[in-house]
């Protein structure tokens, strides 16, 4: 395949462009790209067991994904996260990582990272480290193999744990993401203790009403305000200003010596400082995770080999970035706030 591998192209070097700043004065410096809608798990809060995935021609090719990400880098994106679906099940995805790493070499990009379920990490950790990936997020909700299988429907905990070992051995910093679920609250302290014992931060995420999964959201929803209050009965939590560029607010836990993040789209709206946008694997740009407005970037990308139309489309889209979202989970049977699944826009 024909992806540029190491050096920044002359077009990228020569063109200086305006940064992407929305009408609320927020600079877009963080791009999350879903490189596939497919996954080897079927987590109960994320997907239905039987999913219909997109036909291949609808997906951006790896070359197109590279072009798109590079256009954002030219416009001031400093942090790029590949996600999915499961990014490591996309065929040849390492070619994309290798090609994007040229922006790390040039200094245009500060961080190239991914969010993964960890199932394929044992295979790819060394390659990721070689591409300059220094920190990754691994999603893990429980250390109990049977519960893990039930939550992911198809997952094998031992593979994920081997993947985390491989990443840490390759020198990659691992942060755990765990979705706080009503049926899973008892697991949370053990997961935190285990992670902190291995030098990993943990972020807890409130379940968001995205897509039909065949499960009732109100049964799954566990407010992080409740989790925090219960953890505070067990441990000493101290608010700290630590930030990773994402929406998590952190505390340090005195007894474990580690950091714990809270991502609270429902109990605390975090939109005012939002620096992020998301692109799907079909090249649809969502200016907000929680709103339906979107911009098609695939058409301008495919319309011309030059990036001019693409940059115009980016300007138009960022101009429309909304102030925030308004998720609510308050009554049984409420339909999802948005019909698309989290695996479409990526976490
Ligand atoms: N497959 C990868 C993984 O699981 O890490 C990357 C994609 S996944 C959609 C990204 C993150 O979104 C995961 O941490 C997952 O737990 C979280 N997630 C999925 N559905 C969610 C939902 N409805 N509410 C909150 N978080 C969700
Ligand atoms: Fe797959 Fe990640 Fe969604 Fe789980 S959360 S089904 S691993 S995309």
Automatic annotation (TrEMBL):
It comes from Ancylobacter polymorphus. The keyword Metal-binding applies. [4Fe-4S] cluster 1 binds at residues 39, 43, 46. InterPro entries: Aldolase_TIM, Elp3/MiaA/NifB-like_rSAM, MoaA, MoaA-like, MoaA_NifB_PqqE_Fe-S-bd_CS, MoaA_twitch, MoCo_biosynth_MoaA/MoaC, rSAM. The keyword Iron applies. Its EC number is 4.1.99.22. It catalyses: GTP + AH2 + S-adenosyl-L-methionine = (8S)-3',8-cyclo-7,8-dihydroguanosine 5'-triphosphate + 5'-deoxyadenosine + L-methionine + A + H(+). Monomer and homodimer. Transmembrane segments: none annotated. S-adenosyl-L-methionine binds at residues 45, 85, 139, 208. Its cofactor is [4Fe-4S] cluster. GTP binds at residues 32, 81, 115, 175, 276-278. It holds the Pfam family Radical_SAM. [4Fe-4S] cluster 2 binds at residues 271, 274, 288. NCBIfam families: moaA. Binds 2 [4Fe-4S] clusters. Binds 1 [4Fe-4S] cluster coordinated with 3 cysteines and an exchangeable S-adenosyl-L-methionine and 1 [4Fe-4S] cluster coordinated with 3 cysteines and the GTP-derived substrate. Catalyzes the cyclization of GTP to (8S)-3',8-cyclo-7,8-dihydroguanosine 5'-triphosphate. Keywords: 4Fe-4S, GTP-binding, Iron, Iron-sulfur, Lyase, Metal-binding, Molybdenum cofactor biosynthesis, Nucleotide-binding, S-adenosyl-L-methionine. This is GTP 3',8-cyclase. Belongs to the radical SAM superfamily. MoaA family. SMART domains: Elp3. Residues 23-247 form the Radical SAM core domain. It is an enzyme of class 4 (lyase). CDD domains: Radical_SAM, Twitch_MoaA. Signal peptide: none annotated.
């Amino acid at each position: 395949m024909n992806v540029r591998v190491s050096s920044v192209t002359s077009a990228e070097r020569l063109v200086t462009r305006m940064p992407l700043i929305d009408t609320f004065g927020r600079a877009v410096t963080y791009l999350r790209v879903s490189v596939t809608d497919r996954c080897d798990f079927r987590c109960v809060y994320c997907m239905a067991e039987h999913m219909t995935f997109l036909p291949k021609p609808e997906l951006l090719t790896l070359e197109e994904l590279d072009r798109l990400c590079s256009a954002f880098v030219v416009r001031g994106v400093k942090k790029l996260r590949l996600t999915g679906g499961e990014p490591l099940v996309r065929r040849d995805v390492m070619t994309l990582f290798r090609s994007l790493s040229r922006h790390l070499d040039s200094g245009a990009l500060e961080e190239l990272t991914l969010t993964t379920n960890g199932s394929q990490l044992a295979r790819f950790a060394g390659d990721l480290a070689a591409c300059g990936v220094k920190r990754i997020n691994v999603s893990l909700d429980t250390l109990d193999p049977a519960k893990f299988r039930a939550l992911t429907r198809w997952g094998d905990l031992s593979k994920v744990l081997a993947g985390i070992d491989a990443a840490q051995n390759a020198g990659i910093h691992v942060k755990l993401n765990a979705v706080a679920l009503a049926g899973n609250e008892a697991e949370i302290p053990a997961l935190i203790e285990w992670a902190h014992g291995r030098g990993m931060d943990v972020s807890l995420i409130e379940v968001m009403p995205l897509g039909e999964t065949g499960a009732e959201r109100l049964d799954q929803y566990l407010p992080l305000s409740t989790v925090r209050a219960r953890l505070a009965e067990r441990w000493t939590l101290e608010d700290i200003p630590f930030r990773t560029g994402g929406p998590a607010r952190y505390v340090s836990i005195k007894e474990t010596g580690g950091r714990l993040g809270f991502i609270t789209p429902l109990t605390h709206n975090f939109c005012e400082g939002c620096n992020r946008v998301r692109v799907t694997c079909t090249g649809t740009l969502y200016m907000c995770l929680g709103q339906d407005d979107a911009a098609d970037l695939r058409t301008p990308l495919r319309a011309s080999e030059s990036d001019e139309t693409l940059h115009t489309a980016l300007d138009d889209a960022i101009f429309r970035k909304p102030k925030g979202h308004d998720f609510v989970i308050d009554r049984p049977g409420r339909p999802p706030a948005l019909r698309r699944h989290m695996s479409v826009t990526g976490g």
